[in-house]
């Protein structure tokens, strides 16, 4: 592969999203700074393309149109495949977001690309692209060889460092929305409600996660979990027992039927460690378990365990964390 | 409404993972295959829509090798799907997800389809690619991470919510389209014995594998690795909750180096 690498970005708060910055970092280390071209769509895409320039990406294709805010992967794939074709690009890299994954799935057909999602490692072996990606909820890792003239890769959030600042002038190539089939515009995004979650980071973004399980016993006790999370600057998760009981909404659930997380530190409180839950968190770097039952399976995957009553341990732990962090 | 639901056989969650002899993929010897958890929810969603919309049918489709593909199709029939179609694919645990979508598209082409439902991803390869690739092949829109799916007969639109990085998005879309459901928020029904017995005799339509490979990019697994086994927690000894807290914070700071 010798053609340029196209990084499809997403606009966030007037610039480009963190996921996009990670994608730029991967692209630059794989193909060299001068070979990376950006792509950005949305009502404010032109202004936001300066975010690419700040990372040393000097060429950006821009589809500035308010209809692109909330556009689906179908519309975006039309534009990206055309841009990739016109650049003779061989690789498209996107951040590990909902839209990023939808886009590469489309490019697998539209651009005849070899596709990989959730990628945590990307390199060339004997000229061919190889990706590493966790499978089975992080219980194993597979290496895959991407074969063919084109590849489209969605990286896993936080698996790669963001590109570093290295300002460059941005030359913008406008992208026309003409030629997108009418039916693709038919679905309408009616509104967006920003996710309800305390002050902390979202589960997907958090480098530390504190989760509560059945041992918390009642919805009104869950604040103990949230207070520990707040002291650590952590995201808040829950086991299926908690979301099934309605103590917290379904989007808190970590596990096989919820979200898979792999933070630096995962603190499981009052969670027994059913396989259902383990597959969603076992690839966390360091796991702490707090549970009154010494035989709970969670202690087999944890690095540190406290066998004790969470109603006594948590207040003390929150206090100690706050003290240690000078809060 | 003609509803298609795509299902995939995946190793049971309790499966002990082991690399195959050549080290490229999962060793499937002695692995028990089941209907993927998210797909179970998709089947449930399809049946709920059918029950709420008179005159509807649910067509289950799957792409994969024998015998496990046939087994999950029969399991879906036992739950109440009306027809089953099987796109045969060569054996192997980890086919390319785009290739799987191409096979599914061939199966879907043989049944009426207004709405195609998929699970969010399969619990094995977790690619989450099939729905988007399928929609591109069928030239219809697709939506991932969907919950709260409802059909509004008055306006002939689907209404649903999506959880994305932006938050909770409310959408409406006309048919046809492909929908990948977010997670198992519904409580899938279990098959009743008479239906299980009946499903063993129901016909399954077969769609032959594509003769020539498409001129397309693809992927193949070259290595399957397991992390070193965890040795069990280092238990913190303490007399008071305060001592436990201090020792844990110290360990996270100095030993594990993950204290913020």
Explain the overall architecture.
The complex is a heterodimer of chains A (327) and B (260). Chain A has 327 residues and is α/β, with parallel strands linked by helices. In chain A, 27% of the residues lie in helices and 28% in strands. Chain A contains ten helices and 18 strands. The longest helix of chain A has 15 residues, at 73-87. The mean pLDDT of chain A is 92. Chain B has six helices and 13 strands. Chain B has helices spanning 37-52, 68-79, 97-108, 130-138, 193-199, 241-255, and strands at residues 2-6, 9-11, 33-35, 57-64, 83-88, 115-118, 142-152, 157-164, 167-173, 177-181, 205-207, 218-225, 234-235. In chain B, the strands form two sheets. In chain B, strands 9-8-7-10-6-1-4-5-11 form a nine-stranded mixed beta sheet, with helices on both faces. Chain B has a two-stranded antiparallel sheet with strand order 2-3. In chain B, strand 8 and strand 9 form a beta hairpin. In chain B, helix 3 (97-108) packs across helix 4 (130-138). Chains A and B meet through helix 4, helix 5, strand 7, strand 9 and strand 10 of A and helix 1, helix 3, helix 4, strand 7 and strand 8 of B. Strand 13 (188-193) of chain A pairs antiparallel with strand 9 (167-173) of chain B.
């Amino acid at each position: 592969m010798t053609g340029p690498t196209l990084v499809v970005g997403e606009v966030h708060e007037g610039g480009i999203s963190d996921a996009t910055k990670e994608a730029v970092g991967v692209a630059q280390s794989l193909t060299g700074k001068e070979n990376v071209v950006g792509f950005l769509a949305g009502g404010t895409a032109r202004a936001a393309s300066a975010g690419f320039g700040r990372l040393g990406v000097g060429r950006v294709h821009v589809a500035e149109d308010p209809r692109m805010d909330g556009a689906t992967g179908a519309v975006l794939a039309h534009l990206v495949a055309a841009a990739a074709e016109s650049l003779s690009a061989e690789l498209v890299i996107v951040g590990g977001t909902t839209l990023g994954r939808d886009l590469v799935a489309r490019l697998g057909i539209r651009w005849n690309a070899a596709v990989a999602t959730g990628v945590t490692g990307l390199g060339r072996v004997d000229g061919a692209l190889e990706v590493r990606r966790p499978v089975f909820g992080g219980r194993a890792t597979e290496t895959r060889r991407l074969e063919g003239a084109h590849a489209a890769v969605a990286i896993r959030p936080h698996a790669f460092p963001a590109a570093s600042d290295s300002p460059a002038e941005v030359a913008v190539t406008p992208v026309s929305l003409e030629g997108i089939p009418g039916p693709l515009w038919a679905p309408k995004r009616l509104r967006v409600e920003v996710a309800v979650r305390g002050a902390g980071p979202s589960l997907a973004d958090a480098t530390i996660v504190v989760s509560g399980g059945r041992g918390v016993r009642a919805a009104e006790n869950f604040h103990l979990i949230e207070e520990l999370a707040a002291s650590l600057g952590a995201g808040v998760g829950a086991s299926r027992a908690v979301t099934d009981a309605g103590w917290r909404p379904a989007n808190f659930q970590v596990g096989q039927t919820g979200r898979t997380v792999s933070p630096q530190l995962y603190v499981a409180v009052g969670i027994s460690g059913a396989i259902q839950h383990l597959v969603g968190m076992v690839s966390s770097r360091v796991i702490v378990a707090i549970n009154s039952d010494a035989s709970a399976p969670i202690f087999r995957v944890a690095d540190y365990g406290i066998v004790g009553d969470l109603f006594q341990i948590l207040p003390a732990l929150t206090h100690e964390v706050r003290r240690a962090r000078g809060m | 409404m003609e509803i298609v639901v795509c299902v995939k056989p995946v190793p049971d969650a309790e499966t002990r993972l082991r690399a195959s002899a050549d080290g490229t993929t999962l060793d499937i010897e002695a692995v028990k295959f089941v209907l993927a958890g998210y797909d179970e929810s998709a089947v449930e969603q399809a049946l709920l829509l059918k029950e709420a919309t008179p005159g509807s049918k649910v067509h289950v489709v799957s792409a994969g090798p024998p015998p496990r593909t046939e087994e999950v199709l029969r399991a879906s029939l036992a739950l109440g799907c009306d027809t089953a179609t099987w796109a045969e694919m060569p054996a192997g645990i980890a086919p390319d997800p785009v290739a799987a979508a191409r096979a599914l598209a061939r199966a879907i082409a043989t049944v009426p389809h207004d709405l195609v439902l998929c699970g969010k991803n399969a619990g094995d390869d977790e690619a989450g690619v099939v729905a988007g690739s399928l929609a591109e092949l069928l030239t219809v829109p697709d939506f991932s991470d969907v919950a709260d799916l409802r059909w509004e007969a008055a306006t002939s639109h689907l209404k649903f919510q999506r959880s994305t990085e932006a938050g909770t998005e409310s959408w409406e879309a006309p048919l046809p389209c492909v929908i990948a459901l977010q997670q198992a928020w519904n409580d899938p029904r279990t098959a009743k014995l008479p239906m299980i017995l009946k499903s063993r005799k129901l016909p399954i339509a077969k769609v032959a594998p594509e003769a020539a490979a498409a001129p397309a990019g693809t992927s193949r697994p070259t290595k399957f690795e397991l992390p070193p086994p965890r040795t069990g927690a280092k238990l913190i000894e303490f007399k008071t909750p305060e001592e436990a807290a201090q020792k844990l914070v110290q360990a996270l700071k100095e030993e594990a180096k993950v204290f913020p």
